[in-house]
Specification:
Chain lengths: 279, 279
């Protein structure tokens, strides 16, 4: 099957590599608004050819949207009226606004809202990696609004990529994503700014930073073009989790200020329970 | 040289493995207050024998303290009066109170205050790993208060372990450690508690948690017996950094509340500058 991938960055590029390796894509037709990314996608062998949007969609059996979430709605309004047999799927980190946009389009039933839960802090075609997605979760949202054959194709793709499938309503997805992904990025951005703001002797950071700091601050390298729209679309859930997170930090702060180290120990013991969940 | 290691946990155990592998320790004499850890240290081959404190110190050429930082002062008061030729070094994550304790002891000059900047979120003898410490920084504090031969021995050890040496005043160490290590642990503990508090459907966390969440929350598995004393001893610096961190989170919160997504993008772009420092 010819696969059209719109957005040849971290996710689109990694998807291109995986779909070809698994024999699902006989050819990858790339679409990208950025001329440099078009060139890189060809040079890196992610796409067989780069085309304009309408021509690429017309030729493909499957269209994958791998663009920032604020670009998905407009693309659906452009693409869905053109399709009948094709399947359109997205890969974005928020699902409620995407599904709302899709619901306002003709041929909504050819669209499947999905979120493969994998990523790195890097972006662009050069960030694409082989064997991404393996052992991660792929969420399919509101599947009753998509044609069964369209859902079946996305299931076959994610299973071939080594992912396990989860089915959720879009609203539940966005709530869970705020907890297990979006808040981690916010804490990491804030941590980077904390250290950059206060620590003027940058050599000391560089020399002393051990594994702990690197892992908590790694996500702060993530691309704002991707993350601002995610926070914008998932604002209510993210604010809810962020308020709780600030309140948890203030509890720790209060323990230090009042020298209540027994309670601090209890808070850390409670945090240790994350071991039950994450091995 | 016979090496006495007091505290056969993550750091002491990993140090035992490395010192023997590098041919620096002809034998490791372990000391540990925990009977289970004494047994495990022998079973895992970390120590050749486990002894009582005074007997172990008397027999060793080098004594390494690898205990929670709140236990270092009392150990120095016990050990330093017994030594003359031996070198005593600690490995703790705070240095000001340790140095203050040492300064009040006889034979202060036989003690070297050090901090090998390596660790994991695991603890106990079973957490010890071979080839720890490689390519990390080892900080030696207030070295002018230690005999040159004692400093030279610690330098030889950390260099043999593949570490690069940094020299700092204890006060500067504690400030930098608050930025590059202690705050990361606090954000991680608070993030774990945020998610545990708010997210009742634990299966969803387990299924959805991707690499980003795992890396930011990993440190939340860390041992309170080690970390509460660190926060206690470095309270002022940690509070200072924590206040800045909460203020950075509130800036992001305010952007979301006011839908000021231009400023949010600027904050994220600023956070991205951490790339300059951490490759």
């Amino acid at each position: 099957m010819k696969v059209c991938i719109i957005g040849m960055g971290l996710i689109g590029g990694s998807m291109a590599l995986a779909l070809r390796e698994k024999g699902i894509a006989s050819a990858v037709i790339g679409v990208d608004a950025n001329p440099l990314h078009r060139q890189q996608a060809l040079e890196l062998g992610l796409a067989d050819e780069m085309r304009e949007l309408d021509a690429a969609v017309a030729e493909a059996g499957l269209v994958i949207l791998a663009v920032p979430v604020n670009a998905v709605g407009e693309l659906l309004r452009q693409i869905l009226p053109q399709v009948n047999r094709q399947v359109i799927m997205d890969t974005g980190s928020t699902k409620q606004q995407v599904c709302a946009s899709a619901n306002a389009c003709v041929n909504r039933n050819r669209f499947v809202a999905t979120h493969p839960m994998w990523g790195t802090e890097h972006s662009g075609p050069a960030a694409a990696v082989a064997n991404a997605f393996v052992n991660k979760a792929a969420v399919i949202c509101n599947k009753e609004q998509s044609d069964p054959d369209a859902v079946a194709l996305t299931e076959r793709i994610y299973t071939a990529l080594g992912m396990h499938l989860l089915y959720m309503e879009a609203a539940a997805h966005d709530l869970h994503a705020a907890y297990v992904s979006h808040i981690s990025h916010i804490t990491s951005f804030a941590l980077a700014n904390t250290v950059l703001e206060k620590e003027k002797e940058e050599d000391a950071i560089f020399e002393l930073a051990s594994g702990g700091f690197e892992s908590t601050v790694r996500l702060a390298k993530s691309n704002p073009a991707m993350w601002v729209p995610i926070f914008q679309q998932n604002k209510e859930n993210v604010l809810d989790v962020l308020n709780e997170h600030i309140s948890q930090l203030r509890k720790i702060k209060s323990c230090l200020e009042k020298e209540n180290f027994d309670y601090l120990r209890q808070l850390i013991e409670h945090a240790n329970e994350i071991k039950r969940i994450l091995k």
